[in-house]
């Protein structure tokens, strides 16, 4: 069987380390200061990379993934701040849609988050990849899984007011700093995409301390989901075919 080539994008070294433990690496290619690890993961061809933190890093990395490595589907994996009372560190949020919460052209009567002159408000996850992530999550019972909106901006959210506003204004379950930017690049290139985030903190006043404590647990949880999920993504048709 001809498996689709999957791009795996994370923001930080600690998020990649656990993936690299199970990656059967063939080569590493340097581009724009990033190392693209080419190989097999869970028996499927993948390219895995650390894009760095924030939307610009994430966007330029994603375009390289697509243009140069010809990845046919992309998974963004990492940690995030949980929004709302139900979501606890270690839980997983699977994106059904993503919005850039720091895009604000509301003075021209656009809703906050709307990118001017773009055909969509939010970036929807690919339905088949979303289903693969949900099915994979159902095999894990140690922590809770949620499906919903993830919001992205160039800020580490660390206040109860900030977290509440994102939860209420965008109906979001998690906030982070890369996902919607990767989704944006995938959208304009017609590449199937899903974002899976494991909760490291609750985006409140203790967020920076929780982040340090819970990131290792959150990263481990996300990588178990990835292992289960990758083989379920085979059914997604290659966009470059
Ligand atoms: N000093 C830290 C900065 C981490 S930024 C360091 O360099 O290690 C936080 C990272 O985790 C980003 O990649 C972001 O996507 C995610 N994240 C986790 N919790 C977050 C929160 N509360 N707000 C925004 N991003 C968060």
Total of helices: 6
Name the strands of the widest sheet in spatial order. Answer: 5-9-8-6-10
From the spread of the alpha carbons, the general shape counts as globular
Number of DSSP E strands = 10
Strand content: 25-35%
The end-to-end distance, rounded to whole angstroms, is 14 Å
**Rounded radius of gyration (Å):** 17 Å
CATH topology: Rossmann fold
- Going by helix content, strand content and strand pairing, the class is alpha/beta
Helical percent range?
A: 25-40%
Low-confidence parts? none
Overall number of domains: 1
User: Could you name the CATH class?
Assistant: Alpha Beta
Task: Estimate the mean pLDDT confidence.
Answer: 95
- CATH level-four homologous superfamily name: Nucleoside phosphorylase domain
Gross CATH architecture: 3-Layer(aba) Sandwich
Overview of the molecule:
This protein has 241 residues and is α/β, with parallel strands linked by helices. The chain has one domain (6-229): Rossmann fold (3-Layer(aba) Sandwich), CATH 3.40.50.1580. It is built from 6 helices and 10 strands; from the N terminus they run E-H-E-E-E-H-E-E-E-H-E-H-E-H-E-H. It has helices at residues 13-20, 55-67, 127-138, 160-170, 179-189, 207-229, and strands spanning 6-10, 23-31, 34-41, 44-50, 73-82, 92-100, 123-124, 145-152, 172-176, 193-201. It has a 5-stranded mixed barrel, surrounded by 4 helices. Strand 3 and strand 4 form a beta hairpin. Helix 1 runs parallel beside helix 6. The two termini are 14 Å apart.
């Amino acid at each position: 069987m001809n498996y689709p080539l999957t791009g795996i994008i994370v923001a930080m070294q600690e998020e990649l380390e656990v993936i690299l433990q199970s990656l059967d690496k063939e080569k590493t290619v340097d581009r724009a200061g990033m190392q693209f690890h080419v190989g097999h993961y869970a028996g499927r061809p993948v390219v895995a990379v650390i894009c760095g933190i924030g939307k610009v890093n994430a966007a330029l990395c994603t375009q390289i993934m697509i243009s140069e490595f010809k990845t046919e589907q992309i998974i963004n994996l990492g940690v995030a701040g949980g929004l709302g009372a139900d979501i606890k560190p270690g839980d997983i949020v699977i994106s059904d849609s993503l919005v850039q919460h720091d895009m604000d052209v509301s003075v021209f009567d656009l809703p906050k988050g709307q990118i001017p002159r773009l055909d969509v408000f939010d970036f929807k996850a690919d339905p088949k990849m979303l289903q693969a992530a949900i099915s994979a999550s159902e095999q894990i019972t140690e922590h809770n899984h949620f499906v919903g909106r993830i919001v992205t901006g160039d800020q580490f959210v660390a206040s109860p007011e900030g977290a509440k506003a994102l939860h209420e204004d965008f109906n979001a379950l998690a906030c982070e700093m890369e996902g919607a930017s990767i989704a944006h690049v995938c959208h304009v290139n017609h590449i199937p995409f899903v974002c899976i985030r494991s909760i490291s903190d609750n985006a409140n006043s203790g967020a920076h301390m929780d982040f340090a404590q819970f990131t290792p647990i959150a990263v481990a949880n996300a990588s178990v989901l990835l292992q289960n999920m990758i083989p379920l993504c085979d059914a997604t048709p290659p966009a470059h075919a």
